Amino acid sequence: MARVSLTDAKKGPTYSPDKNYEWEPEDTFELSGVEFSTLLNTTRAMMNCLSILENLLKAGIEAGVIHEKIDGEQVLPPNGQQDNPGPIRSNEIIEGIELP
Question: pTM for the whole thing?
Fold first, then answer.
């Protein structure tokens, strides 16, 4: 079993983001408190962004701007219109969403 932390960098193979890597299931990776809080806060912010995007997507669907696509074909709304009612303003959609 290997144990790795970010302070363990030594002279050896060079990391390349273009390569795929693997490790053993029992290998352990450690984070410092600062590293953990950075990941936690970043993840929370990303989850909030996802919530905002989901609300915007929902509003776009309900406004008839966004239509379902099945097997590459656009499904028209029940009235059959393809009219674009204009942009959906994100500030209209996300009012009431509490940011962390």
Answer: 0.46
* Boundaries of domain holding 70: 3-93
Distance CA 46, CA 37 (A): 14
- Residues 37 and 63: their CA atoms lie apart, in Å, by 39
Whether 77 is covered by a domain: the verdict is yes
Using the Cα atoms of residue 41, residue 42, residue 48 and residue 50 in order, give the sign of their dihedral.
negative
Phi then psi dihedrals of residue 70, to 5 deg: -120, 120
User: Distance between alpha carbon 21 and the CA centroid of its chain, in Å?
Assistant: 23
Residue 51 lies in a domain: yes
pLDDT of residue 97 exceeding 80: no
